Task: inverse folding
């Protein structure tokens, strides 16, 4: 996942899963589980769910794409074994003892504060890949900013607006939409979905599918006249343009 947007957003999903109030230093080890799946384009899923098309209409399968279903915090005392500990120690050495050099690509989000681990689990397989994830200064700031200031439209509130912190699932949704939009496969996250795998979409409830299997992007934010919060700083405004335009 070498795309700049993905590399900037995934750490924020990780930070939010861990907890934005936690301390991120070189000696704090956090590990999260990220569940992945290969999903067809929505129009294919929708046509099968509504029984407008049959699985037999796709004898050669269809093109799909990697999607993040969930990212959750794990207990390090249970999840960390000798192999994962070595991955973490090697990554820390790269990040803090070699002039900030990190083997995996990073983006310009400031100095590395901590290194986390992510267990990537692919649906339908026993495949698990553990990768180190740098937590950079600006990524931590943006995750904390979003958890404190995100405002969205919701008819269930008397004012028509409500305040809710950004959750890890919502960062997953942002990544999913970004991957869906990559129709030319420039970030190399598209893959083949065989015909057999399409059977599970026949007759499913699309609302449940969108909310559980492919988390939906949160509604567009807009100022809430009833919200009580400090006036945004210049840096806040920059972050808002980056995330909620």
Result:
């Amino acid at each position: 996942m070498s795309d700049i947007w993905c590399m900037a957003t995934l750490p924020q999903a990780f930070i939010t899963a861990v907890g934005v109030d936690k301390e991120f230093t070189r000696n704090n080890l956090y590990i999260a589980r990220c569940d992945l799946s290969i999903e067809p384009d929505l129009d294919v899923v929708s046509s099968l769910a509504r029984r407008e098309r049959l699985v037999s209409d796709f004898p050669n399968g269809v093109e799909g794409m990697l999607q993040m279903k969930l990212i959750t915090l794990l207990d390090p005392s249970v999840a960390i074994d000798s192999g994962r500990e070595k991955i973490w120690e090697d990554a820390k050495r790269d990040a803090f003892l070699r002039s900030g050099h990190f083997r995996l690509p990073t983006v310009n989000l400031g100095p590395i504060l901590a290194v986390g681990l992510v267990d990537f689990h692919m649906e339908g397989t026993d495949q698990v890949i553990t990768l180190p994830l740098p937590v950079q200064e600006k990524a931590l700031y943006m995750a904390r900013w979003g958890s404190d200031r995100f405002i969205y439209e919701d008819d269930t509130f008397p004012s028509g607006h409500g305040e809710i912190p950004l959750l890890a699932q919502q960062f997953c949704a942002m990544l999913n939409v970004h991957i869906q939009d990559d129709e030319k496969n420039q970030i190399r996250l598209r893959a083949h979905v065989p015909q057999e795998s399409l059977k599970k979409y026949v007759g499913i409830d699309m609302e449940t599918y969108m909310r559980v299997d492919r988390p939906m992007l949160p509604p567009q934010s807009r100022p809430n006249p009833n919200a009580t919060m400090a006036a945004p700083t210049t840096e806040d405004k920059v972050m808002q343009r980056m995330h909620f335009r």
User: Anything to note?
Assistant: The longest strand covers residues 62-74. The chain has one domain: 4-243. Strands lie at 31-40, 62-74, 112-122, 128-136, 151-153, 161-163, 190-193.
